[in-house]
Amino acid sequence: MLLDIRNLTILLRNETSYVQVCKNFDLMINDGEICSLVGSSGSGKSLIIKAIMGMYGHDMKVTVDYFKFRDMDLTNLSVSERRKILSKEVGIIFQEARASLDPELPIGVQMRASLNNSCFDDKWYRWPFWRFRAVNNILHKVGIKNTKPVLRSLPYQLSEVLCQKIIIAMALSRKPKLLIADSPISGMTSTSQVQILKLFHSYIENNNGTLLYITNDLGPASNLMDNIKMLYCGQIVESGPKEQVINSPHHPFTQSMINAIPEFNRQVKVKMKLDVLRGDPPEFTQTPIGCPLGPRCPHADRECNTMPPVVKTKNGFFRCYYPLNMEKENESK
């Protein structure tokens, strides 16, 4: 087990008090696994990553019952001590790429500074200029061929997509044990998306790394995933292997996310209704009592006014009183 987190709770401060955005969140990731955290915008995905890494200020309160990374128990460490340990082993690709870069330093200076001495694994006589070579090589891998003008530029002189590729290159160049990617391919062309996803897969295979992939779209990266965790209003509503979650989803929210994947072989009629859940996700200050999906769920009933218990499946679990596709689950048993 590479990462084991139990009962993570996050409180976010608003104008008058603290609002609970995540409660009893568990996250377990094995070595070499590609785990995906999937949820709609505003479900708390980015806040969870900031809480794990200790990248938050006084506007957030974070508690956790158990926190273990590799063989290190980080539960009782302070936020700064935990962040110091994780920064050496974990690489993060943030969603807002340009905001993650220093606006006053050229890209080349920032990329070379991100390379620690421990990243050098070549012959001793190749030490001079190894940072320059490493930076050029990783930029080529993310699809940036003409590197000289890019390395001389400041972040504001580059497009958001180009900055996103640079952030990906910086994270991969450090060869982290755990790579956290928060919507890394949003806004890219389909060709660039495929290239980046192949690069992630190659990195995991060749470096024995682990990937936590965060997205609000199951479509582009579904083939990359090993395990999927569906997040809604700060809670995991379904978890399991990719084949089980996509081919036989039990939670209505999971089914709605699958329905949102475009099928190009299906004929779309004029003014055809979209197969989506009614309404919008609630604000954290207005989370429903009981099942958070309740008011939007087409199968909701009186029982949904209480929190559904965890129902274990063959290789995962879900939280729902009226699950879907249970015939397939019974047949597999």
From TrEMBL:
Keywords: ATP-binding, Cell inner membrane, Cell membrane, Membrane, Nucleotide-binding, Transport. Residues 5-258 form the ABC transporter domain. InterPro entries: ABC_Ni/Peptide_Import, ABC_transporter-like_ATP-bd, Oligopep_ABC_C, P-loop_NTPase. The keyword Transport applies. GO terms for biological process: peptide transport. One of its GO terms (molecular function) is ATP hydrolysis activity. PROSITE patterns: ABC_TRANSPORTER_2 (PS50893). Pfam families: ABC_tran (PF00005), oligo_HPY (PF08352). It is found in: Cell inner membrane. PANTHER family: OLIGOPEPTIDE TRANSPORT ATP-BINDING PROTEIN APPD (PTHR43297), PUTRESCINE EXPORT SYSTEM ATP-BINDING PROTEIN SAPD (PTHR43297:SF4). This is Cationic peptide transport system ATP-binding protein. It comes from Ruminobacter amylophilus.
